[in-house]
Amino acid sequence: xxxLGLNCRFCNKPLTNIFVDLGITPLSNSFLKKExxxxxxxxxxxxxxxxxxxxxxxxxxxxKPENIFEEYAYFSSYSSTWLHHAQDYVxxxxxxxxxxxxxxxxxxxxxxxxxxQFFKEKDIPILxxxxxVNVAKVAKEKGIPTITKFxxxxxxxxxxxxxxxxxxxIGNNVLAHVPNLNDFVKGLKILLKPTGIITLxxxxxxxxxxxxQFDTIYHEHFSYFSLITAKKIFSFHGLxxxxxxxxxxxxGSLRIYVKHSExxxxxxxxxxxxxxxxxxxxxxxxxxxxxDFIKNVERVKKKLYEFFKDSKNSGKKIVCYGAAAKGxxxxxxxxxxxNFIDYVVDQNPYKQGLYLPGTHIPIKSPDEIQNTKxxxxxxxxxxxxxxxxxxxxxxxxxxxxxxxxxPEVSIL
Length: 412
Prior knowledge:
alpha/beta; Rossmann fold; 7-stranded mixed sheet; 17 strands; 33% helix
């Protein structure tokens, strides 16, 4: 145990325990143009800590969100799996809670309109809040009303003064991206109508630990949540988690349903207590569960490096699929660069022609795979492996194989 001089972003208690230290890396979405790949890159510590009081796993704020998100390379609509997930969610919420043309739906971090478009098709009033100017532009071109700014308590107050309080607030994979956590949750409380509902999705810390998903740790993710910790945070701000679902997205996520604590029209589902008990049995209230995680991370790092080294020594050609943020954490931490990997492919034309941060591996179109016929295709966004394997199954025509790096190195 060491004294770090850092305090928890939720409860302000001193942070005295390291969860996992992944070294010094560039921002995982700071892709490089060819003309600057030989320039020095900004790099920051990628060291996460766990609060011994509230068990929030967190990364200190080394870079302001404005410098990470205002020009962003991630567009949700490029994944068909994610689009299906969004459409299924919209249909489920309409059926379950009866949202109609009289209700206002607001999505925070609405990206390129990937989800709100399905509410729009049902003539349900919508509003997106998206800080990335380039991404919000795409949403607006689709006819999705979008405010280009970061969500905060002040943003919520502005919308409230314009009589735009929400019947449904959606936040998919945004809670982890917020350094000022208390201000964000306070804003949710302000923006929600008295009988309204909030749903938030975020990667489940239990799954991260259980399945060695250390590559989901990067500078854009300031916090990593268990239900135990989320319940404490929302309760502190007068909000109650009344239902929870374990969903498969991003390698295992939680979808929580939240209401005003004073609203008695919805009762708390037993699913909440069941999952809280599951987390306690796993040990998420024991500091040793967190501090022991590094042993599994180091084991995966060793095996992955050995695979790349042995494959290269055998004359195998290796290519990666997906210029994903998690891949940049994985490759930089494991010391795997363009000495092992010929190139990485990505469907997003915004990334093609650029280079991965840190490793300087070139990003190309998936069409390149047919031209070079690699022996191994490493699937970096392993959470989308089924979609990618189906899309790229033709590599088997020349004996190509798929490699999944997490939770263990596996060759398919």
